[in-house]
Amino acid sequence: MIMRNMMKGIRQGSRFLTVTGLLVLTFCFAMFQGGFVSWFIFFTLLPFLLYSLLLAIIPVRISRVEREVIPSKLQRGGKAKVTVRFHNDTLLPIVFLLVREVDMDERFYRIAGGRSINLFFAGWRRSFEWTYELEDMQRGEHILSALEVTATDFFGWVTRKQVIQQPYTLLVYPHTVDMNYTSLQVQYDQGALAAKYSITKDTTLVTGVRDYQAGDRFSWIHWKSFAKNGELRTKEFEDRQSQKLFVCIDRTTSSQFEEVVELTASMLQAIVARNGDVAFLSGGDSRVFYPAIRTETQLEQIMQYLAVIKADSGLPMEQLLRNERELNSSILILVTGSLTDDLKAFLMNGSKYARAVVCFVVVAKDQYADYKGASVRFSNSRVIYITKEMFGQAFTEVNKP
User: Fold this and answer.
1) One domain, residues 220 and 262
2) Using CA atoms, how far apart are residues 176 and 261, in angstroms rounded to an integer?
3) Rounded to an integer, what distance in angstroms lies between the CA atom of residue 132 and that of residue 80?
């Protein structure tokens, strides 16, 4: 950093000396040569030389930098329109103002038309804005770190650069598809078995009141009735059948990992949208576990996590799920990109962990023909091969015989 600042100072000093030397040279030429032509050259160059000297001395001030990204919520493969606005507070009018985004990595998006850099004819103009597009955005957290502003004179004799640190984070979510979510019916070798339901009380729907019984929750007491006659009464709620699902994403393999994340996100979105009872687990360097996902806020938190998740887990499935008590009464849904020998061993012992296990293995479209009809079934587990084009019918595939 010190060396960089030193080189920058040397370049600015050399440019200043060059302009000063040119001014002295033209003046001496006019003095010694005399005549109309020599003085005409001197006075013609004088305004440009004086402007260059002033630009070398007066600092360039850029303020109120802001970015606006449309749409605000981005998905993998999508396109974003970025509008940059800033204000020029420099005392001297600037002829040319070159502005560009710093440290943009086109591995994660494609800059349409190279418009992340723009040239303005500034003059006395104060407010500026320009728009560029980012296409084919990849899932993850991308940071637009700073703007580099370069001011120059008429002939490029003096240039002034300023880097404005104004970070902006672009969070690109996994791409999701609409799914036809239905209750699961796991197919075994012995025949079909409808996955069991649990009875839960929907506390948003009160159907009546009854006498208080020992063990009733304090929050269920009907206080209006108690205020009238002094007797404890308890609210009655509508019983609702719910099928417990436990979704787990496999982070031990990088094969088809982007599609694995997209299938997981689409499943969670479909289940929560239809008020399903679902838990979510992801193990690895950053373990995340949600025992129950019921609200849009919880779903949004998981989507933000899935936006930055990586295939960085070294834990086998059996070790990851061994102590999860929530599995005992749930249907375990595994999403992976490769059916490894370790995973097969886990599926063979799936009855020790969950009521039933459904394993989705995401494969490429050109490889699906090799796996089609190769659905693997164990005592209470089933393996389903699926491509990206089939995500919308994922739950339907489970119920197929």
Assistant:
1) no
2) 9
3) 9
The secondary structure of residue 221, as a DSSP letter, is B
Question: Which pair of structure tokens corresponds to residue 53?
Answer: 């000297």
Residues 74/172, Cβ–Cβ less than 8 Å: yes
The stretch 377-389 carries a mean pLDDT of 82
Q: What is the pTM of this model?
A: 0.73
Contact between 168 and 143 (Cβ < 8 Å): yes
**Do residues 398 and 377 lie in contact, with contact meaning Cβ atoms separated by under 8 Å?**
no
Long-range contacts of 309-314 (CB under 8 A, 24+ apart): 309/249, 309/251, 309/261, 309/282, 310/251, 310/284, 310/285, 311/251, 311/252, 311/253, 311/254, 311/257, 312/251, 312/284, 312/285, 313/250, 313/251, 313/252, 313/283, 313/284, 313/285, 314/252, 314/284
What average pLDDT does the structure give for the chain?
Answer: 79
- In this prediction, residues 368-397 reach a mean pLDDT of 79
> In this structure, what are the phi and psi dihedrals at residue 118, rounded to the nearest 5 degrees?
-145, 145
What is the Cα–Cα distance from 256 to 5, expressed in whole angstroms? 45
**In whole angstroms, what is the distance from residue 175 CA to residue 261 CA?**
9
Q: Are 316 and 261 members of one domain? A: yes
What phi, psi does 210 have (nearest 5°)?
-145, 175
What residues contact residue 250 under an 8 Å CB cut-off, 6+ apart? 260, 313, 317, 334, 335, 336, 337, 343
pLDDT per position as a tens digit, 331-368: 889 998 888 887 888 888 777 778 888 889 998 888 88
Q: 148 and 230 share a domain?
A: no
Domain annotation covers residue 5? no
Structural domain that includes position 299: 185-197+243-399
Please state the domain count of the chain. 3
Treating both helix axes as pointing N-terminal to C-terminal, what angle do 2-33 and 35-57 enclose, rounded to 10 degrees? Answer: 160
